[in-house]
């Protein structure tokens, strides 16, 4: 009996050690730092797979890359190349073990006046630092999360299949968003917006400018403008379309749907049929607001 109990005790200790060892995870630490002079290139491109990418402000006049990993091997370090004025940084080798973890930080100085291109296949891309880019700012992912705020750029271009997109306090001549099924939120955006989706949902508030919004599948569109400077075009095939306009805006209005309903807060100024509504709102309207759904309802207020 004593021998049996001892065997069980030993087995228990062994199993505890195995499970504890399997559950233990090394912490990520800084393993690699690279510095680049901003005078050596006009555009910066980062291309990573599963790593999260965090954009931060540099405290000196160089672009700095920091790589954090829970395993330190030189073969895992970033690879760099410069060609035709573009600095390209790509991930090194990655082990197939699920226990491996890594992320990167890219520090951008205020002196940088080029373009910035960020790609992460499934990782998170987060840029909350104040960026002022005279060039283009492009961010794309397949299934990761994108969060960009406090940015001024010539053009901001976002591409995503799935995931979550979040933008706040953006000032750009043009903002282009192309997604299949990502959930998108925007707040305090100034510029011309071109939004294209298939099944994702869009919720946007305090927009200033103009734009085209197109949801070709089941995606819904809910947008609110603080200021409209040019024409608005919004199409949602099957999802609900909700639009809030500035109370003093003068505009020409057109809305049509096949199976949905049309509801506005200015119906007394429109010619309305079962599936259409059109007219002019306010004195001397020059801006056109053109709305359309196939099966979704349309709701417009001022």
Describe it.
The protein is mostly beta strands. It contains 1 helix and 22 strands. It has one helix spanning 2-23; strands at residues 29-37, 43-48, 52-57, 62-69, 79-83, 86-90, 102-108, 115-120, 125-127, 131-141, 145-160, 164-179, 183-197, 202-215, 221-236, 241-244, 251-257, 262-264, 270-272, 276-281, 287-293, 298-301. It has a 22-stranded mixed sheet that branches.
Oligomeric state of shown chains: single chain
The total count of helices amounts to 1
**Terminal-residue CA separation:** 84 Å
In this structure, how is the largest beta sheet organized? 22 strands, mixed
How many β strands by DSSP? 22
Strand content: over 45%
Structural class: mainly beta
Large-scale geometry = elongated
Helix content: under 10%
How confident overall, as mean pLDDT? 91
Low-confidence stretches: 1-23
Topology order in helix (H) and strand (E) letters: HEEEEEEEEEEEEEEEEEEEEEE
Cα radius of gyration in angstroms: 26 Å
